Hints:
- It is a single chain.
- This protein has one domain.
- By secondary structure, it is mainly alpha-helical.
- It is built from 16 helices and no strands.
- The longest helix is centred in the middle third of the chain and has 24 residues, at 105-128.
Amino acid sequence: MRKGLWELGHSKIEKIIQKATINPWRGFALGTIITAFIQSSSAVTVLTVGLVNGGVISFYQSLGLILGANLGTCITVQIMALDLTQISIPLIFIGILISTLKRTKSLGIAFLGFGLIFISLDFMAKALLPFKNSLLLLGPLSNAATNPWQGLTAGIILTGLLQSSSVVIGMTIVLCSQEILTSLGALNIILGANIGTCFTAIVASIFSSKAAKRTALAHLLINAIGALLVLPLLPLINSVLNWVTPDLPKQLAQFHTLFNLLSSLAALPFLKILAWFLTRIVPD
């Protein structure tokens, strides 16, 4: 799905970014829209690191884009929280059909990927049923709820390995819906996934300019500080979510969206201070 959507719009994205990063708020709005469209915060942050490295935009201009990417990726999780299994086969069929035509190939690939998301989540849920009472599986997962640091670390490592916070959160939603993982444990893992998603940009910046390294480091600092501030509040947040809706997938999707929205809005007024701080840490 990401490949198809990227092919549909990537040629125009760089030009749009150059014109729309005059201030952090516009960059934030643009980062949100682009990430929601191509369904990958990692792709947007790596693109941003590349643009900073090439001198197309400044380090300071990149900060708004990164915050927007954090919020835009929540659209994917919101979609995964919906039960759309019934339309997965028609979407796959339509995707295969229109991908055979040259003009609609990219759109067909996107449809195919969209359908595969839901059919794969359904397969995963059914495959996990025999292990519902397995101590081998329940033991480590229960630790994610009782020990928030273990849950946070699990989310970081899984997302770092799989290079996609959406995949990890999708797996977490399935585990919760099958009552294999508690909602509190899932919240810990989701916070970890928000930190783990930063590793892609960090790897991309290793052989880049100092400004590009600052951009990747800013992404990590913003997500890590937000996660660490919220971690002690998760039991309270979990109780509120249980009161708002009994639907576990929706609880997790709402938490993911609210966390990224509030942490981004909280960080926006302090971007000049953050830019100054990182320039001191990683000087030219």
